Amino acid sequence: MSETISVLLDTDPGSDIDDAVCIAYLLKQSRCKLVGITTVSGDVVKRAALVEMLCNAAGRRDIPIHAGLPGPLLHGPGQPNVPQYEAVRGRPHRSDYVPGSAIEFMRQTIRSRPGEITLLAIGPMTNIAVLFAIDPEIPSLLKGMVSMAGVFTPGHPWGEAEWNCWTDSIACAMTYAHVPRGHLSVGLDVTTQCQMHRDEVKQRFAVPVLDVVYDMAAAWFQHSEKITFHDPLAAALLFKPELCEYATGTIDVVVDKQHKVGGRTPFTPSTDGPHRIATTVNPDAFFEHYFGVFA
User: Fold this and answer.
1) CA-CA distance, 267 to 232, in Å (whole number)?
2) pLDDT tens-digit map of 56-95
3) Going by C-beta distance under 8 Å and a sequence separation of 6 or more, which residues neighbour residue 284?
4) For 11-76, what is the HEC assignment?
């Protein structure tokens, strides 16, 4: 039997729909033991409520959910709104999540299980930067860390600063300076190759848990005809790393108070660098794997 992986997820559902698509996958992935889900960026209470709705749809009321920090640290554009919440606000959910409680929950959870937990970061890195700052030993206590973050190809058509890094570039720079060695970044270079048109989404999301995600996507489809599976790809690599190829090197994060170049993540290849990036992906194999967990 394949190894079960203990995952602590830090996420910002309710803006881009791919966070919810990722959470649904983790809830249905039989090899995933979700030890907790924390929310970050903007209205973290509404984001926690969205996580709760997805967990309820999967019959997983056992998973701890904590609201984190609204961010950004010091300066940055931030991400205040949660448009997808309005599409599903009628579903039962709590409204008493305590903003900021995520940090101590993350700290205690990782410390209670040294060397066992993989931290999966798919939102702005505000929570993680503060966690690493108040307890610098935390990175060494992780089994590993994977982030959906960055863009590592100069001149990429989607821009040179990925959203999670751009939204709070100071937090991103703090995090990358202290991530555990071998930290994997899954950037726009590869995630943008995994897209699905809304017509196919409607057909393939007609299964439990993904049906709730589809309801949330009503807000997303007001301005987009496709879903890009940024975060789900990062999650899938925990369980099927052969979906991608990788390179090792060093990632630097640009901080800019005017936000013109802030959040850029130039990558320098080297055999002994502390960071890894995904460089290629097999989209067909990814989609087969993703939807396979719902079969």
Assistant:
1) 23
2) 999 999 999 999 999 999 988 999 999 999 999 999 999 9
3) none
4) ECCCCCCHHHHHHHHHHHCCCEEEEEEEECCCCHHHHHHHHHHHHHHCCCCCCCEEECCCCCCCCC
pLDDT bucket at 1, cuts 50 / 70 / 90: low
Q: Are 146 and 186 in contact (CB under 8 A)?
A: yes
Task: Give the pLDDT mean for 120-132.
Answer: 98
Q: With CA atoms as reference, report the closest residue to 55 among 124, 2, 105, 9.
A: 9
Which one, of 94, 188, 180, lies nearest residue 142 by Cα? 180
Q: How far apart are CA 175 and CA 123, in angstroms?
A: 12
CA terminus-to-terminus distance, the chain: 19
Q: What domains are defined for the chain?
A: 5-292 (3.90.245.10)
Task: Enter the pTM of the model.
Answer: 0.97
Q: Among candidates 16, 21, 122, which has minimal Cα distance to 68?
A: 122
* Nearest alpha-carbon partner for 190 in 211, 171, 162, 226: 162
CA distance 244 to 222: 31
d(CA 155, CA 29): 35
Side chain identity, residue 207: V
- Grade residue 290 by pLDDT with cuts at 50, 70 and 90: very high
Contact 201, 228 (CB under 8 A): no
Instruction: Bin 150: left if φ > 0, else alpha if -120 < ψ < 50, else beta.
Output: left
| Numbers of helices and strands, H then E, in the chain | 13, 11
